[in-house]
């Protein structure tokens, strides 16, 4: 409860609760380690991981995944490689979440070969590792490869989730693949049965906005079944700035202020 509030004072209370436990098992260690990792306290997460090793607590896939994510956030490749070595010794390298965290680590640190190797060695039977590698190609502007991976997912019968489509739409947006992105956006709910979320609409607005299709971006915003959040409006406002559409920018600015 305390650690999920993402407040420094409450994190201290979380640590006090943890320290008051007489017999700490893997669950209590993982709770605070994962909480640190997910809420941006990556330095603390790595310290706790080292403490877990010192007191010989059993380290499982939850702990490895959280620790590798913290290594990614801090871009501490050497420590991450050491954790990777422990993962291999412990036999958790085939776990989806650990593999995903390894892909994320090597991607963040620009180690292309190891990111791809971690993906190739993963089980690939869920969308978790596929999402990580798709996002990696997205970040590096390799949209065509990311789309090919999605088609490979479909061939293998792996179902994508809402995160998969955020990655694909981002890929199309950053790679200028407007036609492909538009097709994906229209197919998410009817074809894959995944309800459209705010993130999908934001990516769609970015897709059309980057390409200068401001009318389509505006129409998409207005077609949303819920109120657009500030990110959607700011994305559209950024497109107006690039293409000099002052009239639309004024309208969006009013919506942002509201």
UniProtKB/TrEMBL annotation:
- MF annotations from Gene Ontology: RNA binding
Q: Does the keyword Repeat apply?
A: yes
**InterPro entries (alphabetical):** PPR_At4g14850-like_plant, PPR_rpt, TPR-like_helical_dom_sf
Q: Where are the PPR repeats?
A: 25-59, 126-160
Q: Does the keyword Repeat apply?
A: yes
Ordered alphabetically, the record's keywords are: Repeat
- Alphabetical GO biological process terms: plant organ development; RNA modification
Full protein name: Pentatricopeptide repeat-containing protein
């Amino acid at each position: 409860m305390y650690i999920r509030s993402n407040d420094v004072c409450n994190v201290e209370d979380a640590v006090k609760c943890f320290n008051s436990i007489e017999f700490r098992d893997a669950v209590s260690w993982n709770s605070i380690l994962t909480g640190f990792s997910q809420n941006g306290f990556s330095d603390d997460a790595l310290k706790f991981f080292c403490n877990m090793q010192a007191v010989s607590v059993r380290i499982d896939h939850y702990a490895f995944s959280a620790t590798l994510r913290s290594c990614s956030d801090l871009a501490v490749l050497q420590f991450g490689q050491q954790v990777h070595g422990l993962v291999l010794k412990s036999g958790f390298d085939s776990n989806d979440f650990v593999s995903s965290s390894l892909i994320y680590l090597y991607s963040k640190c620009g180690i292309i070969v190891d990111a791809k190797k971690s993906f190739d060695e993963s089980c690939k039977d869920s969308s978790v590792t596929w999402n990580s590698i798709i996002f990696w190609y997205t970040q590096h502007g390799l949209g065509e490869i990311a789309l090919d991976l999605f088609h490979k997912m479909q061939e293998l019968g792996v179902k994508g989730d809402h995160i998969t489509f955020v990655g694909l739409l981002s890929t199309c947006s950053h790679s200028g693949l407007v036609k492909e992105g538009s097709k994906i956006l229209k197919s998410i709910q009817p074809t894959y049965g995944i309800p459209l979320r705010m993130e999908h609409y934001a990516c769609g607005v970015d897709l059309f906005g980057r390409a200068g299709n401001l009318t389509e971006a505006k129409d998409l915003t207005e077609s949303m079944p819920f109120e657009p959040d500030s990110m959607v409006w700011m994305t559209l406002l950024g497109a107006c700035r690039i293409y000099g559409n002052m009239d639309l920018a004024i309208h969006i600015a009013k919506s942002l202020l509201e």
